[in-house]
Amino acid sequence: MPPEGFSCYNSAMTKREQVSLGEILRTFFFIGATGFGGGMAIVSLTERVCVHEKRWLGLDEFMHGLAFGQILGPFSLNTSVFIGYYLRGVVGGVAAGVGFIAPSFCLISLLSWLYFKFHEVPQLQSALKGANPVVIALILVAAIGMARKKVKGINDWLLALLSFAAAAFFNISALTILVLGVVWALGRGYYRREHQ
Amino acid sequence: MAATLKLAWVFFKIGLIFFGGGYVLIPLLHRIMVDQLHWLTLKEFLDGLALSQLTPGPLAMLATFTGFRAGGFLGGLIATIFIFLPGTALMLFLASRYEKLRNIELIKAVLDGIIPAVVGLVASAAYTLGKTSLLSPRDFLLLAAGFLILQFTRLSPMLVILGAGTIGFCFRFS
User: Fold this and answer.
1) pLDDT tens figures, A101-141
2) Which of A37, A177, B82, B112 is close enough to A41 for a disulfide, judged by CB 3.0 to 4.6 Å?
3) Looking at the structure, do residues B80 and B165 belong to the same domain, yes or no?
4) In a domain, A105, yes or no
5) ipTM score here?
6) Which of A49, A124, A137 sits opposite B146 (nearest CB)?
7) In this structure, is residue A171 part of a structural domain?
8) Per-residue pLDDT tens digits for B16-33
9) Which residues numbered 30-59 in A keep a CB inside 8 Å of some CB on B?
10) Is-contact B39 B69, C-beta < 8 A?
């Protein structure tokens, strides 16, 4: 079933080979199972796997999906759903979401059961302490790759640095930053049109 | 049955109102689960939070833990489905309009215009996470090794993450 809205609007789409639902499910299952560190760490992992390794979608599309995802809550899940939809429509989106959530769901159910039985959090802290620096490295690699390809010229850099500072130093929420970014982008587009 | 429905409804509502990423969820769930409904004690809530941070997957999996407490395995399943349902439905809707919207000049300009902001957000996550978890030379060594491997080899990032987790586990990092 070709997803409505994709096949007829973009000629590049027709060249893309059909990705099987099983493949989508499997891929997102592994992403869900290794996505330590929450949100952005998982998204960096998703970018690496879906954009660079499997070449399922371009960096542009991925980042649009990420921007949408941040507006709507749990963005690591949302980005997965977006990619799944992009590949195979609604069924693909649901497959990606279910595959992504399944490993953490099973693990958390098991651990919750143990917790409410024995009232102790298992000793996973050391594993997380080992994984964390590497997760940060993964996010850094993703950010550097995105900046190299997508941040061009002084205006882009200014916006990137401003959003970095706003989020890192001033604790401003991603949603606020993106809304301000939209205003900025609209303003720039308007300014350009007026001065051409 | 009534209890299950209530569970579904509570988590559906939470799924509807939490915009802007996982960390908004912590104060929200705390207020609803601990203060209003008394489904969890404060200690259980904090332990559940630790659990969902220790395991892979989004932080919102805290809902699974809370649901499990309220109604066992089925409760966990229902809480998980319903907290993610509103966002996923909205996302599917947005994705279905994406290709059409993208061909409108103004929207395309906005979509491409905010990409640098997204890059800044990604970088800030590395900073925020680094500030709290890069504490010793050992951590920086792992960071450097991970960076080199991920930047210059094609080794699957999942293997790299699991490998680092195993190192931490075996050497009992504290």
Assistant:
1) 999 999 899 989 888 888 777 677 788 888 889 889 988 99
2) A37
3) no
4) yes
5) 0.82
6) A137
7) no
8) 876 655 566 777 888 888
9) 30-45, 48-49, 53
10) yes
